[in-house]
Amino acid sequence: MMGLSARHIISACEASLRRLHTDRIDLNPMHHGGRATPVDETLGALELLLQQGKIIYFGSSNFAGWLLAGFQERARARGTQGLLSEHSLHNLLSREMELEVCRACREYGIGMIPWSPQASGILGGTAGAHQGGRRSDAQTRDRGQRHCEQRAAYQRLCQEVGSPPSEAALAWLLDQPG
Fold this sequence. Notes:
Blueprint: H1 6-20, E1 25-31, H2 39-51, E2 55-61, H3 65-78, E3 85-89, H4 101-108, E4 111-115, H5 137-146, H6 148-161, H7 165-174
Parallel strand pairs: 1-2, 2-3, 3-4
Helix pairs in contact: 1-2, 3-4
């Protein structure tokens, strides 16, 4: 049971519904992977969950731009709803999403949800204070040290414009197209 197969999607949704003690998920995101699974199989499972009222919308996470476009085109050809959102790493230090994903999202009407908008605290002025989650404190410190010069320049800029670093990082994201 792997990736975006119909069996995996339906099973994962059922497990989430049980864990959440609910009968409906408003937005069901699919994490990257499953490129070996035909898009029609994935869409068929999602359509079934929509018809059963178990999900209202579905989205993606960490999909490449070409995969977003292909998914939306297949959904259009099937006459079904496509992706509502794409959840990708996007912040002032990690802008790879802008290479193709942002454009695909804009072209296909997919909402963009950035994750780690403050780069694990580096842009929020709390680098090294990260606790819990998937990154260890050491990983966060190492990343903060790699970006030491950028962080210092960013903090100077924030002081010049009179904005707290955390607010400036979020304001920058909110100002991006899409």
